[in-house]
Specification:
Blueprint (H helix, E strand, L loop, with lengths): L4 E8 L2 E10 L2 E3 L5 E3 L3 H23 L1
Amino acid sequence: MSQPTISLQITCRGNTLAGIEALPVPVSVTPAGHLVVEPLEPVMRQATQAFIATWQRLCAKGES
C-alpha cells in the first residue's frame, strides 16, 4: 500500500501564496485491514513552520 498524502495551497484574498505538495498523512491499519487516519496536527504544524520559515527568508531577501 502506498503512503497517502495531502497537498495544501495557501492563499490570501484569492491569490496563491504557496503550495505544499505530497505531505505524508499518518495512518494505521486495523487488524481487519481498515485504514485509520491518525491526527493531522503534527503534519499541519510541520507544514506551517516550513511555510513561515520560507516566508521570513523571502521577506529578508526583499529587504536587502
